[in-house]
Amino acid sequence: MKNVIGFLVLIVTLVSCNSSNKTKDTYGSVDKSSTTKEHPGKKMMEANCYVCHNPTATEADRIGPPMIAIKKHYIDSETSKEDFIASMQAWIKNPNAADAKMYGAVKRFGVMPKQAFAEKTIEQISDYMYDYDIEQPEWFEDHYNKERGNGKGNGQGKGMGNGQGNGMGNGQGKKHGMQQAQTNFQDLPYGERGLKYALTTKAVLGKNLMGTIQKKGTLEALTFCNERAYPLTDSMSVVHNAIIKRVSDKPRNPKNKANSEELEYINTFKKVIANNEEASPIVKELDNKVKVYYPITTNTMCLQCHGKPNETLENITLTRIKSLYPMDKAIGYNINEVRGIWSITFDK
Question: Which of 64, 115, 53, 70 is nearest to 89 (CA)?
Fold first, then answer.
């Protein structure tokens, strides 16, 4: 089966039951809503894919298609789970315009940056996406039907049916439910809670940064980071009532320099990533506080500003970096390297 399309690591299927006396849909998907939250692929998808493919982003503010779009375009009645996983593995290893099938998405967003995920991670995300219902934006059903001619064409076989099978009931109150899911994390275990704080902040920064790169280029993105990264991070600290920081052993801004304890965690995560393993949050409980740490890793887009001079980092960009950050140390990276960590502190 040909390599699957160009955006982020996932596609899948899910279908509503076609009759009240059936537990499986036409193509074998099962209603597993009671166990969806326990599937490791769901957490991996949120951690690795939602910066660009978050279902809560508006259509106008997107920097990549939602995962449901990938799913509906690339899974049909002939697609087995094995085929799908193999296609995802192939695409992630070599995203490129020639093999892309969502031509409109590539035209609008460009080809996704090359990522370096462990094959096990891709497998588990793909497994989750293939078997389980996934969230879709409120606007998606109308958009998809218009794009496909009222639902006709490929990708219809294992789609969302009437759009009511995404675990959100009949769609009423979906907006408020999703917003609550994005901010109300107090009942989660500490590790998951800290990770949610990091990932929602990452999504805000990523949307603005990647949007700037797409619209204005790398040099303007440097200006954005210089002027807006701290205020946006601070605003998310207020939203979550937590202290949210990004720190590094090779900081661009001296304010982001890791302390001795954080340096230990950076080195720990470097070993995990170098072994091609999936990182888990590090949790430290104090008397009445919790600290959670999670790695920040590089992809090909990061290398435009953090790569190797005369290779992935252009001289004009390097000159601008030196003017904005005279003490910069944050260059020389390859993809899938630990550039720093999220440091999250909140009350128990």
Answer: 115
